[in-house]
Amino acid sequence: MSRITDIIKLVREELADKTQSVQRWTDFLFLEYIKEAQRDIAYRLGCLKDSTTIDLFYNVPIYSLPENAIRLTTIKDSEGIDLQIVSHDYMDNIDSNWYFEKGERPLKIVYNLLKRKQFRVYPIPYKEDYEGYKLGYEISVGQNNDDFGIIADSNDVNFDSDFGCVVDLNLDNSQTKKENKYYGVLTSATNFIFDKSVGIVSDSKGKLVFSSPYGFVTGIAKKVNNIIAFYDRMPKDPETLESELEIDDIYDRAIKFYCMGMALRNDVESQDRNLGNEFIQFYEGELRTFRQDSILGYGTRNESTIRYLGEI
Question: Is 165 exposed, middle or buried (0-12, 13-18, 19+ CB in 10 A)?
Answer without folding.
Answer: middle
